[in-house]
Amino acid sequence: MALLGTPASAASDNKSCDTKRKIFTVNESLPSLTRKVERHEPIRILAIGSSSTEGIGASSPDHAYPAQLEDELGESWKDGVTVVNAGRGGETAIETIDRLEAALKAQSYDLVIWQVGTNDAIRGVNEEAFRALLDRGISAVKAAGTGLILLDQQYFPTIKDMGRYERFVQTVSALGLERKVSVFSRYALMQDWNSRSAEELRSMLSADGFHMSDKGYDCLANHVADAIETLAEQPVAQTTGAGATQLATAR
Questions:
Q1: Please, what sign has the CA dihedral across residues 75, 60, 96, 130?
Q2: Domain for residue 245, yes or no?
């Protein structure tokens, strides 16, 4: 397992996007994705989740994170990158899973990015039920032979039951490690913004104080692009005596 604090893409002028926190945990390599990049073949990515994937809070669909991610990766991988936005606002995991399983049967993808858990945490979904659903979704992606990144919950200023909420965040992290699925921690990234100042976090959020603004989505897309490139460019890691792996930060 490698913990990466990925810098935002140099192409972005969003200086406040940089972070020293560990926001991306590499729990598996994706050799099939690496081979396609090396062969200069087109890459197809499914971004699925709720409102943060759909792009609620952005000024236009072009500013949602999947659209910006496609642009970011397209600058590096000139042979064609398609990021399909399958976000649907308001969904919990049980609602997204049916769509995820159907999408995997209908199309082949090189990578799935599953943004999950915020609505489950704030709407009172049972913690064990959430874990079981997450496990089911992971199994579906693995059965399809597709790579997966779990994109965990967002941080927002008005979290009411912090203990419960962070248990949901930890469930994503723990199951990612157990099932060997890489995890991008949006929660840690947004916490970092807040730790600098409340104003810093607010600048990344839309007027509702919950969903991201164009600036926040741009930052998220930059970091996710760096994470995906790390997986594709450095899939083989050196094993340490403790069985962990260490990957250097790319870019």
A1: positive
A2: no
**CA distances from residue 197 to 21, 26, 228 in whole angstroms, order as listed:** 16, 29, 29
Q: Bridge partners of 2?
A: 26
Task: Name the residue with tokens 């690496």.
Answer: 34
Give 67-108 pLDDT, tens digit per residue.
999 999 999 898 899 999 999 999 999 999 999 999 999 999
Give the C-alpha distances (Å, rounded to integers) separating 22 from 6, 56, 96, 98.
Answer: 8, 26, 27, 31
DSSP secondary structure string for all residues of 169-219: HHHHHHHHHHTT-EEE-HHHHHHHHHHH-HHHHHHHB-TTSSSB-HHHHHH
Q: In which residue ranges of the chain is pLDDT below 70? A: 1-15, 234-251
Q: Reduced to 3 DSSP states, what percent helix, strand and coil does the chain have, rounded to the nearest 5?
A: 50, 15, 35
Tell me, yes or no, whether 15 lies in a domain: no
**Would residue 91 count as lying in a domain?**
yes
In the chain, the number of structural domains is 1
Range of the domain at 146: 21-229
Give domain status of residue 6, yes or no: no
pTM reported for the whole predicted model? 0.88
Which helix or strand (DSSP H or E) is residue 107 part of? none
CATH code assigned at 169: 3.40.50.1110
